[in-house]
Amino acid sequence: MHIIHHDFKIMLLRVSKLLPLIIISCFLSGCVSAPKGFLKFPETYLEKRQLQIRQYDTTDEEKIIISVAGVLQDLGFMLDDSETEVGLVVASKKADATDGGQIATAFFIDLLAALGGSYSNASANVDAVQHVKASVIVKPSLEGGRTVVRVTFQRIVWNVSNKINRVETVDEPEIYQKFFDSLSKSIFLEAHSI
User: Fold this and answer.
1) Is the distance from CB of 93 to CB of 132 less than 8 angstroms?
2) φ and ψ at 184, to 5 degrees?
3) Would you say 102 and 96 are in contact if contact means Cβ atoms under 8 Å apart?
4) How do residues 139-164 score in pLDDT, each as one tens digit?
5) N or C end of the chain, less CB within 10 A?
6) Where along the chain do its domains lie?
7) What CATH number should be reported for the domain whose range is 45-100+127-191?
């Protein structure tokens, strides 16, 4: 009995040392909350979705995927991956990213720094090459009898020092409009065997 009583005292002593830590942990976890607007979509979310998505009056996903691949190739992309079972097409292309205004600004900053006796390397950060990636998902519409096509374009821009300047989603409406105009024509031609 004396041994059990002694073990109980040791256990109580250990718990009493941990009790303040447990209480503080419980208190702090109750104070933590999600940031305001944590689950809220950005205001531009719907606009971007409208740019990226179109529905077509067909259920032949395979023909749409073939048309998507053809359109991307016509736009200068190389096909990287195509999984027809899941409706995925991924393509990419490299393009020139130089901008005359950016070059002139960098030259002017470097010139001013040199005249002032300091060093500037603004020219090293001038955009040189970009790698554009297109990802297309083709899936049946929830409404039935239609197929949904969603495309997103992203780009990675390298500077003249061969370092990444930026990674971004392309949001220019003209690019999406050109893709979907070409896709609509291709689907029409494919449907009529022209």
Assistant:
1) yes
2) -60, -45
3) no
4) 999 888 899 999 999 998 888 778 88
5) N
6) 1-32, 45-100+127-191
7) 3.30.310.80
